[in-house]
Protein 1
Amino acid sequence: MATFLVTGGAGFIGSHLVETALAQGHRVLALDDLSSGSVYNLAAVRANPRFEFTPEAVESSRVLAELVDQADVIFHLAATVGVFNIIDSPVQTIENNIGGTEAVLKAAAKKKKKVLVASTSEVYGKSAATPFREDGDLTLGPTSKSRWSYAASKIVDEFLAQAYWKQHKVPTVTLRFFNTIGPRQTGRYGMVAPRFIKQALDGLNLTVYGTGRQSRCFTCVSDVVSWLLRLADDDRAVGGVFNLGNPEEVSITELARRVIAVTGAKVGIDYVPYEAVYEEGFEDMERRVPDISKIVALTGYSPQVNLDETLRLTRDWFVANAASQAVQAQTEAALVTR
Ligand code: UDP
């Protein structure tokens, strides 16, 4: 049994990681300021005696050092995410994402604790070198476009993780997530899959931004968690950067069609210009496809859940949680901007 610290433990990926780690017999400490995570995500584990929750922000946590001291491995998932958040709150995005990672690495450095740092496929930016390899170039747009501040903040996090490993011998592993989706993900901050599912279940047309020809590779959260737990236990990963994604590529229009099929909704698709929802001159990524040969070779694990199955699981969760979601939506109404 190990003790894990999960920052962002009440978030979408974090709460699934917490749950699976507890089911495997580990002790889990979760730290989360509930800015985008929710206590609802922890409902199933709150009473577990091997689980402890601290509702604080990473960088201002009074107990971060204490939690890090208790942990064998730290999963640093806490971050400001979601394109709406990033465009509406670029200061918070940059400060939270860099400040949080800096605080965790500083604390981990004292006792050389292993840290798995969450990054994102967004760091590949406008690169056309698909499928993206971890050693490929990162091609961001100009600083005048807030969208790129998220990728830039995560690139700094990646450099910090590498620097702490090279200079201070803190064992770090950097993970680039490719559009992780599944039950508990909220569409409130922009993520397309839960937005489409909610629209379909509410009997509304699905809103595809841009042409809909842009593509993504959606990855089931359970596959991501399986990789995370394997990496926690594997010293060969230390110092490395890994793509975590399912290479099954779909256009956003195709995603909309799959959601309509999976929900059986009698709805259509509306195409909305980017400028109507994001900032003026918004730049999207056209294709985002991972090369996952590195993570598969290391862990021997490949994605097990395809897109349709992940959409079905997510639909079931939305249906089962419609009531608690309504309560949550009311409580958090002030946060809803779109
Ligand atoms: N998108 C969309 N409708 C929505 C939300 C997003 O068509 O309601 C598009 C978005 O413009 C992008 C893709 O879906 O091309 C994925 O968006 P998301 O914010 O989920 O992730 P990211 O852009 O970070 O990959």
Note: The chain has a mean pLDDT of 95.
Protein 2
Amino acid sequence: MAQTLTEKILRSHLKSGTLESGKPIGITIDQTLTQDATGTMTYLQFEAMGLERVQNELAVSYVDHNTIQVGFENADDHRYLQSVAAAKGVIFSKPGNGICHQVHLERFGEPGKTLLGSDSHTPTGGGLAMIAIGAGGLDVAVAMAGGPFHLISPRVIEIRLSGALRPWVTAKDVILTVLEHFGTKGNVNCIFEYTGEGVATLQVPERATICNMGAECGVTTSLFPSDENTRSYLKAQGRAEVYRPLSADEGAVYDGLFEIDLSTLEPKMACPHSPGNIEVVRNLAGKRVDQVLIGSCTNSSYVDLKKVADILSGHTVASHVSLGIAPGSREVLLMLSRDGSLATLVQSGARILESACGFCIGNHQSPGTDGVSLRTSNRNFEGRSGTKSAHVYLVSPETAALAAITGVFTDPLSSHGIPYPEVAQPASFTVDDSMLVFPPADGSGVEIFRGPNIGAPPANTPLKENLDGYVTIKVGDKITTDHIMPAGARLKYRSNIPVYSKYVFEPIDEYFSQRCIENQDRGRDNFIIAGASYGQGSSREHAAICPMYLGVKAVIALSIERIHQNNLCNFGIIPLTFRSEEDYAKFDQNDEVVIELIREQITTGEVVMKNRTKAVEVILDCDVTDEQRAMLISGGLLNILKEHS
Ligand code: MIC
Ligand code: SF4
């Protein structure tokens, strides 16, 4: 039978289950990647598994998220990560070498392979025809130990591209169009597979941009076929030998279809405060801009930034605008410096930032009060920039560069007088792997460094018979992991759960953790009530570990996003869903609630929760796999792994 590309790759990696959408499957993972902010917990968990060395084909540890190094914490984390990588057989990408997804695409991605990364934008690898999935650190640790990754066999949605993009219309505008159509919720357990003659008009970095931001739709991943453009990209990276052609069979059947004629698109943007809030740029033409930031794993390839340099050439950044540019990798930075683009950027008044996540995670470059910031990144959740009152718009590098010059939103298709920057893919990239540290063949003698800020992941107890406590918080729809577990200024506590836990829900309710502790002290449980699409955004498992540490036993929501749901199960927090909005309305913060005989109830998949304060009860769904049910009963995956070791 004709197969989709997704099916082909999944089938060749299938370990358990059947490929029928909606059914649980387990797949082998060829490659893994971690980044520093999720990496410390991942490797601490891997160490707890007691293995001498990673078992999968290729494991890379990147340091890109927190390179700010205010205080000793980040530098200590980096030292831990470098030493544990050497000890366990992991390649270490030093801070400054670039953003994990950009570097992985350049140096390690391979068509037809599976990649699991402890970062939600791991699907960037789909630009090279990989099944590349974002997951919590514990899942990645299991994959490094040679274990399968469990997921729900996806619905495969075909996104059929025809035509070609017009000048000034970009890959970013393609994915913003996809986001406009699919939105940021309701796409759990889907994969976007790109097909059609329009595919050949897009180069690998453009495909990577599109796959990267598919994460904002909440899909498991996105992928493109592997074709002549893939071959020339890999050849230009000096890796022609890993090329192999891959595509769906003629007549493959998909679970859905969305057609895009590339030639009809126009420059778009995601408006505050959601990547799904799409508008055409022309609708805001003339609006004043305070800050422009170009970079992030979405749009910081060599061609992206060379185009920016060509646009800025001979111009000066508007006097009221601050322009920052973060090249995605050291390779990109080296190439820009060799071809003179770096000088052009500096001359225009751009501030050159480190090749790291930086501004994208709110680590620095926070806008001023009420500031309007145009960014080429992928998330504009309220407060993520570090400034709650800021208005962040997500745009293409071309749209961003024009605004930096004019100082206002400028439709790239309008008559602004700046010539279109024609930039071709280079025939060869400047490859320099000297900031990759390869592990010794035998790491047994390597001493693993641990600073005082690094603590072991906290233990959980097995599930009790009855849960009894309070709705410690009730939140609405689309609560992101940035709301649950803020990054930015708090990022340096990622390796210190007791301290980081103080900031759970800080952007919404700074007293949440205090209430949790008070309830815990009285021997009562904590419950979180939420609306639709709870846990959108990042893969950070801290959004489950820290609530677990605070005694949260269940999250009851209208719906929960895939990665977060897995993280909750991994750490023994029960994910439950309401059957209706009316049921959601029956609970308020501080209500006293009880779930009796929970161990028995979750095995049936139906759970009755009583609201003692309001004297009502509702039936909830507990839609988890058998493996997850076992984790919930044991108090998390780590407890199960301990039982089996
Ligand atoms: C993000 O873009 O939100 C992050 C920061 O890269 C996260 C990972 C993290 O929180 O460390 C992600 O996307 O998974
Ligand atoms: Fe880094 Fe931003 Fe990409 Fe996350 S989205 S990996 S913070 S650049």
Note: The two ends are 42 Å apart (CA to CA).
